[in-house]
Amino acid sequence: LCERVGFIGLGNMGSRMADNLFKAGYSVVVHDINHDVMKAFSDKGFLTKNSPLGVAEESDTVITMLPSSAHVMDVYMGPEGILNHGDQVRSRLFIDSSTIDPQTSRKVSAAVAATILNGGSAMLDAPVSGGIISAENGTLTFMVGGSEEAYRSARPLFLSMGKNVIYCGGPGTGSAAKICNNLAMAVSMLGVSEAFSLGQSLGIGAATLTEIFNSSSARCWSSDTYNPVPGVMEGVPASRNYDGGFATKLMAKDLNLAAISANEVGARSPMTSSAQKIFTELCDRGFETKDFSCVFRHYFHGKDE
Ligand code: NAD
């Protein structure tokens, strides 16, 4: 493979994704504002650059994996951002895998199309499902919005970091899919937790109720794969004091994006509002780094705390 891939944002997820691209044989050039991270990548043999523009000058495709919309705007539109000297940019394909709101994805996509003109350019929003372990094992699911042609050309890249790649439609639809998935996951976790808590108060044990849910109509990922009640399932965060897994603060962030998006399009979203309030409260109470299934213990079950 002679294709050179730029990677910006080498945090929990991005560092592992960049490693997998490297292992797949791509030449990878990286940037992060954290100097320790840059040093570690340079020691591993990656080419490092001091700015997003520096990366885009050197690579055919640029992938970003950043904390939030503001960081993505900065990397594209900031003073040393990719679009600031569009004429110097070698890259023609831009992939943003950060979880951000669809409106920002569309804004950046339009700015790329307007700025990087010669030779044609494309932007894909391609957020991921699956956490640090999936990023490490290369088993992420990518949800991709943008032109179908660009999606097809990027499939080999996605498949060296993940195992499922789903095309969602035009710009912003990948981000929309991600937000909707996590909204549904949050609400199902709340529903299961509330039901287990009520069940226990009414005298039915969690193990029995789980058996019933999982062979009845309440069965879902939160009951049969990621059960929030300690001791019911092995290998889930609930059985190791809610350590590891998907942090409550990331769930609160994603629900905030869902709330903003719902507001922008005027969608009714009472469940989003309730879920956002509950997960934000858990963060305020100090559980922001615990797995989000801790809502069972610290919100429903621990009502007397
Ligand atoms: P992280 O905070 O660990 O990493 C972000 C990295 O971006 C950091 O290394 C930071 O230094 C760097 N950065 C910030 N601003 C920058 C800038 N202007 N230029 C260059 N680098 C910059 O975050 P993460 O856990 O890797 O998550 C990244 C994205 O993936 C987020 O949008 C998150 O919501 C999403 N996501 C995370 C998970 C997860 O389980 N952690 C799962 C799915 C999706």
From TrEMBL:
GO biological processes: L-valine catabolic process
EC number(s) per entry: 1.1.1.31
Residues of the full protein shown: 79 to 383 of 384
EC category: oxidoreductase
Cellular component terms per the entry's GO annotation: mitochondrion
Domain of life: Eukaryota
Family label: Belongs to the HIBADH-related family. 3-hydroxyisobutyrate dehydrogenase subfamily.
Pathway noted in the entry: Amino-acid degradation; L-valine degradation
Protein name per the record: 3-hydroxyisobutyrate dehydrogenase
Organism: Salvia splendens (Scarlet sage)
Signal peptide extent: none
Keywords, alphabetical: Branched-chain amino acid catabolism, Mitochondrion, NAD, Oxidoreductase, Transit peptide
Start and end residues of each 3-hydroxyisobutyrate dehydrogenase-like NAD-binding domain: 172-298
Keyword Mitochondrion applies: yes
Annotated 6-phosphogluconate dehydrogenase NADP-binding domain residues: 4-169
Primary localization class, coarse: mitochondrion
Reactions listed under catalytic activity: 3-hydroxy-2-methylpropanoate + NAD(+) = 2-methyl-3-oxopropanoate + NADH + H(+)
A Gene Ontology molecular function term of the record: NADP binding
Subcellular location: Mitochondrion
